[in-house]
Amino acid sequence: MLEVLFQNRPNHWSRIWPSSLALSRWLLEQLQGSLPESAKELGCGMGLVSMTLAHLGIRTEGTDREPIALAFAARNAERNALEGFSATYLDWSEPEGEATQLVVAADILYEQEAPALVFALLQTAGLLLPLGRLLIGGPRLRPAPMTELVCRLEDQGYSHSEEMRLVDWEGRTEEIDVHVLTRPA
After folding, report:
1. Predicted TM-score of the model (pTM)
2. Domain limits of the chain?
3. What would the pLDDT profile of 86-138 be if each residue is shown by its tens digit?
4. Level-2 CATH architecture, domain 13-28+36-182
5. What is the CA radius of gyration of the chain?
6. Mind spelling out the 3-state secondary structure of the chain?
7. pLDDT tens figures, 47-60
């Protein structure tokens, strides 16, 4: 897996973060056949979660707003000989694309407007189909943005479950919250 290391000011997309590891592990633990045939990742960055899905045989569209991140994700998929992965530009403020049964996202709620934009992508733009699931992970140290998004979605009738995952990362243990939200019919 290619990463962009040793930058003076690293971009968020240029690293594999603990949330990506937690979501990938969660996906690998699911029963065969319990995941849909296709999925979309928001803010795919280097593409680890998307590639985990592709490894499981799920057609996956990794999306990001950074063209260079998409190029790295595509190159990582190529280097790993993964089929079923595509990389697509997605601007959350001008969403377009097909709806899906599974949307995944790792550590994307770090900008103040992110919870409202993700809510609009799922609910207003309809990126997540009825009865579809959002799998989203983020560090326990920053609960406010995740809480805002979860509350907005629960107010729309989404069901919600969460679990905490421990990830050993760069010499320390990170606590990552993994949330599964299911859109109502």
Report:
1. 0.92
2. 13-28+36-182
3. 999 999 988 888 999 999 999 999 889 999 999 999 998 899 999 999 999 99
4. 3-Layer(aba) Sandwich (3.40)
5. 15
6. CCCCCCCCCCCHHHCCCHHHHHHHHHHHCCCCCCCCCEEEEECCCCCHHHHHHHHCCCEEEEEECCHHHHHHHHHHHHHCCCCCEEEEECCCCCCCCCCEEEEEEECCCCCCCHHHHHHHHHHHCCCEEEEEEEEEEEECCCHHHHHHHHHHHHHCCCEEEEEEEEEEECCEEEEEEEEEEECCC
7. 999 999 999 999 99
